[in-house]
Amino acid sequence: MPQRKSPGSLHNVCLQFIAKNVTYWTEHYEEYHLGQAVYRFVLGPFNQLNSQLSEDLLAILVKHQRLSRSALHLLLYGGALRQLDLSSCNRIVNDEVIGIVASSCKMLQALDLSYCKRVTSAGFVAIATRLPQLSTLNATKTNLRGSAAQGIFKHCFGLRDLSLKHCLVSDQDVMVLCQVASSGHSKTQLKRLDISYTLITEKGARAVLEGIPQLQVLEYPSLLTSLYDNPEPDNADSVLQHSKCYKLRSIQCQDYMSVSNGMLQAIPDLCPQVTQLDLRFACGFDSEGLGHLTQLKNLKDLQLCCEESEDITFASGILPVLLEIGQNLKVLSLQDIDGLDPVAVCQLCPNLRKLFLLMMTEGKVFGSVPGIPNNNGLQAMTGLIQLDFWCQNGDLSLSEEALGQVLSNSVAVQTLGLIRIDTFTDNVLWDVLKKNNFTNLKQLSIHECHCITQETLSELLLSSGNQLEFVKLINCVQISRRDYETWERIAKRENFNLKLEWT
């Protein structure tokens, strides 16, 4: 059954008390010192807190909207912080705050400034020159640009993860990064770089790929086009003669870009170490192009949508890929692929951790593929921790038998989502519960499943076998507000650590 609430830990009780009475700890500084001068050292009330306690207190203050300028200053003056996320309090973050960070938090390793638009170039220069331990910087949607960005590139040699998303950074700026990376006396350690929605062109992205050979993740909308610089996309011979080989681990297509069969053919040669491939927002390829994915022997995460393609079916396009590399996959997302067979997917990908099967386009339906080679039947999926099914309204192509088989064998699932599944009936759930107690289930979302009733669902929600913490029920016509209130009363009476949402 859902776990009962336990008494709060001393750690949390103390931090909650400090947060509730934060004005007591900050009123002297706020009255006499805030905004009066720039201090090199402040003997404040939080100086004895270590990094984790400071981070937890900051998170609590933000959550309860109690974080003031004075409280933030005093936490920063403590100097213990190793990770600092200021994205949720961007209204009070300015150059003054960044100056305190740069002067006091010398051990800072990760800094998130996303959406902090009050930080100017001067603040970023202070970060570049005075935080030697910094390894992660998120500057998404900030005013980082031009000389300030170049300063980051020139001085922050220890950066391994840098996000410049939605910043006014240009090709000229990243050329400085490439020059720094190629210089003998100071090599960049960048492994991940996000330059999505900047002023950087495909030429600049290609320069980054060639100038930083150790880069593992480059977030860029037309990354595949930058990789595949062949002017004749359908000429496969020139692709095979491509001399470049990158160490990219992740390739993600964005903004519904056109991807040719030649581009997919080039991926195993250009990026043989790729472990994640996201083609949900790509179009222009067919089953022949997908066949080249069988060469990606290191692939662990495959996400694919065929919403606009009428030619790709599960049997012709996906099945050959799963037969070859399904054993290696840990994450799989398949959307709008006609004839998609959930049971076959689970049989061919027994080591999955996360599985998302979606069918939302009119005219595309689930199916069944007979005669799978080496088919020993569906076995218990002991590694699967997240499972999501999503159908279009009124779609009965996902059979009760197939749904029951998949749910019965998802014995380790922790997060389960069922959206518009008309074959999710009382009989199916009863049969599933006889075989699978969902002992690890923590989160359950059921949206617009109109064939499930309160009586059967109660067997799952209040079962002695699960560990449910969160349940969301949306527009299920046979689940009434009275049912929801009944479950709420039981949870309150039994002191269950269970949050219920119903609409």
TrEMBL record:
GO biological process, alphabetically ordered: SCF-dependent proteasomal ubiquitin-dependent protein catabolic process
Domain of life: Eukaryota
GO cellular component, one term: SCF ubiquitin ligase complex
A Pfam family this chain is assigned to: LRR_6
Protein name: Uncharacterized protein
Origin species: Patiria miniata
